[in-house]
Amino acid sequence: MEITGRIKTVLPLQQGTSQRGPWSKATVIIEFMSGNYPKILALDNMSKAAEFAALPVGAEFTFWFEPS
């Protein structure tokens, strides 16, 4: 699925250690238009968390993701 939106918030990077080793997760909150009204969506990323957490607030990006 593809969605284009403006970044409203970047949450602090979360890190930890599991039985499989270290992990990190970044979350961004984006605002996008759906019909006539803006919608808010939170997106998590664990594979490229550092890059995801460095996205600038206020910038517009296109994201590709698999909803689960």
Note down, in words, how this protein is organized.
There is one protein chain. The chain has 68 residues and is mainly beta. Helices cover 7% and strands 62% of the residues. It has one helix and five strands, in the order ββββαβ. Strands 1, 2, 3, 4 and 5 form a five-stranded antiparallel sheet that branches.
Can you tag this structure with a few keywords?
68 residues, mainly beta, five-stranded antiparallel beta sheet, 1 helix
Mean pLDDT: 95
Overall geometry: elongated
Helix content: under 10%
How do the helices and strands follow one another from N- to C-terminus? Answer: EEEEHE
Q: Mind describing the biggest β-sheet?
A: 5 strands, antiparallel
From the alpha-carbon coordinates, what is the Rg to the nearest angstrom? 13 Å
The oligomeric state is single chain
What distance lies between the first and last C-alpha atoms, to the nearest angstrom? 11 Å
Structural class category: mainly beta
